[in-house]
Amino acid sequence: MDIVKLEKVPKIAVYSPKSKLPWDDAVTMVLKYAEIPYDVIYDEEVVGGKLPEYDWLHLHHEDFTGQYGRFWANYRGVSWYQDDVRNQEAMAKKLGFTKVSQMKLAVAEKIKAFCSGGGFLFAMCSGTDSFDIALSASGIDICERMFDGDGVTPNAPSKLDFSQTFAFQDFKLDMNPMNYEFSDIDVTNNRQIDRTRDYFTLFDFSAKWDVVPTMLTQDHEKVIKGFMGQTTAFKKSFIKPDVLVLGELKSAGEARYIHGDIGKGSWTFYGGHDPEDYQHMVGDPPTDLNLYPNSPGYRLILNNILFPAAKKKKQKT
């Protein structure tokens, strides 16, 4: 992973529930491994205005749509799922929201304002597409009865506002609550790629002209082995034209690693859950990063922590 000790790092926040859920976050694992300090914040801190205290924010396996990760079909009878629903509903009520989906939208809008004001956002797995979906569905109910107690807005998918999103446009929602999927942004359910051929390629950028993307793609390998997640990778046809694709599986029309600017800040989305666990399942043990000290997939995560220190020099004309 080419870990280095940093003299100065941005002030980092990880958006994560305080209660333990049955999966681990690749970013918090690598932050601990690299001995980089961070704070854990969640809905109460974000709604309460704490984000401006930080430089860098991470989102991982999160659902900003208020559908509890679409785990209802398989896990509704399991204690951790039931506890999560109770905790989220209690927090929504505490913060003055009628529904969890309304609270999550407020959080997403706070994060958007954080980025616009100069903050850096890094998201992985379902923290990427569910974030954009929530922003696009402001004022629309896209949650079925088992999630919020009532039905969806009639013709909800046709009322999305893609001008509000960071990365994606023209996507279609998956309105079947039994499916472990939010929309057709993600490629997981329809990809026909054998694990032995699942790789993505990083683009080359010039440090002279493109400092940030050069830092974000700096790695000891340019071809990176793929890994799955609830959101594995993004269909390129739904990516906005001003978004920079940093890594892709061109033959499949997939983007794995993308970046963009918003206001004074920027964001990076990275598909997949754990770079060294090809198909991490709920309840699987965490990855031992001591076994992967030179992981090129984890190196990309670290690049996103380092790059806020990069500043473009004024070019001579």
CATH architecture: 3-Layer(aba) Sandwich
SS class: alpha/beta
CATH superfamily: Class I glutamine amidotransferase (GATase) domain
Q: Give the overall pLDDT as a whole number.
A: 92
Overall tally of structural domains: 1
Report the sheet-strand fraction.
5-15%
Cα shape = globular
Q: Helix segment count?
A: 9
Distance between the termini: 38 Å
SSE series: EHEHEHHHEHHEHEEEEEH
Radius of gyration: 19 Å
Quote the CATH topology.
Rossmann fold
Number of strands: 10
CATH structural class: Alpha Beta
**Main sheet attributes: strand count, strand direction, barrel closure:** 10 strands, mixed
Low-confidence stretches: 2-6, 311-317
In brief:
The chain is an alpha/beta fold.
Description:
- The protein has 317 residues and is an alpha/beta fold.
- It has one domain: 3-Layer(aba) Sandwich (Rossmann fold).
- The protein is built from 9 helices and 10 strands.
- The chain has helices at 26-33, 43-47, 72-75, 79-94, 100-116, 126-136, 145-148, 211-217, 296-306, and strands at 12-15, 39-41, 56-59, 120-124, 199-202, 223-225, 234-235, 244-249, 254-262, 265-270.
- Strands 1, 2, 3, 4, 5, 6, 7, 8, 9 and 10 form a 10-stranded mixed β-sheet that branches.
- Strand 1 (12-15), helix 1 and strand 2 (39-41) form a beta-alpha-beta unit.
- Helix 5 packs across helix 6.
- The longest helix has 17 residues, at 100-116.
- It is globular and about 50 Å long.
- The relative contact order is 0.16.
- The model is unreliable at 2-6 and 311-317 (pLDDT under 50).
